[in-house]
């Protein structure tokens, strides 16, 4: 759905059908996805600008528009990126897309099992945890229930990160959202393979596990390092985003 809404070609009829339903039901739903993707682009450009040249993108959802390796390699042509996703179809597409790039890898793994990620050949080959790394949870932790301990999942990665590493999180919220749209969203996801857990500002802030947030902190994604036009985009109000430094 994400790829379809962002204008990509790697999607299926079921994706387009459900996306069409959400587009019709939620006036700024498409803009929310696009605003989140623009936030990711700005966040990765910022992190790469701090000298980070290796990234782990958890729940990557490749192929997509404006991928992490494309943004990072504009700043550091040699940048290494490991994409992690649980979906075998995503991984098959990603491996085909990345086949000619030995600086990137696509790993089929569950981000809720960090040990499997750390033990993988892809991470061993491309990521050096003795140096700063960028770890990305872009629009993924809202698929993790409280019982699955999202803060603990994030903490497993931040514990491995060297000082100077950066953590990027974006997460859906219902803060200040119209009540009549909430049930539409819940209904759309009730038969999905993963739940949609909306969290408020304080709950999302706790996911950063006390790391120092880059200014302006945890804000709606359209207000993070954005210009006036982007800040006025209403769709960004559905998603909080922030970048933190260890």
Automatic annotation (TrEMBL):
SUPFAM superfamilies: S-adenosyl-L-methionine-dependent methyltransferases. InterPro entries: SAM-dependent_MTases_sf (IPR029063), SAM_dep_MeTrfase_SAV2177_type (IPR006764). Gene3D superfamilies: Vaccinia Virus protein VP39. This is SAM-dependent methyltransferase. It comes from Actinomadura geliboluensis.
């Amino acid at each position: 759905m994400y790829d379809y809404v962002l204008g990509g070609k790697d999607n299926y009829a079921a994706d387009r059908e459900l996306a069409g339903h959400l587009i019709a039901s939620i006036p700024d739903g498409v803009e929310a996805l696009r605003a989140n993707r623009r936030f990711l682009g700005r966040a990765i450009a910022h992190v790469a600008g701090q000298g980070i040249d290796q990234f782990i993108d958890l729940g990557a959802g490749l192929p997509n528009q404006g991928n992490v390796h494309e943004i990072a390699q504009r700043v550091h042509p040699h940048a290494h990126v490991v994409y992690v996703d649980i979906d075998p179809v995503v991984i098959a597409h990603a491996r085909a897309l990345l086949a000619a790039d030995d600086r990137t890898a696509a790993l089929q793994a569950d981000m809720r099992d960090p040990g499997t990620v750390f033990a993988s050949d892809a991470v061993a080959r491309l990521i050096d945890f003795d140096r700063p790394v960028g770890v990305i949870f872009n629009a993924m932790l809202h698929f993790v229930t409280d019982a699955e301990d999202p803060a603990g999942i994030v903490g497993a990665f931040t514990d491995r990160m060297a000082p100077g590493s950066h953590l990027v999180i974006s997460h859906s919220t219902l803060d200040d959202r119209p009540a009549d749209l909430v049930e539409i969203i819940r209904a759309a996801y009730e038969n999905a393979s993963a739940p949609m857990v909306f969290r408020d500002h304080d709950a999302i802030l706790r996911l950063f596990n006390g790391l120092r947030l880059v200014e302006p902190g945890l804000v709606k994604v359209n207000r993070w390092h954005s210009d006036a036009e982007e800040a006025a985009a209403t769709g960004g109000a559905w998603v909080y985003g922030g970048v933190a430094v260890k």
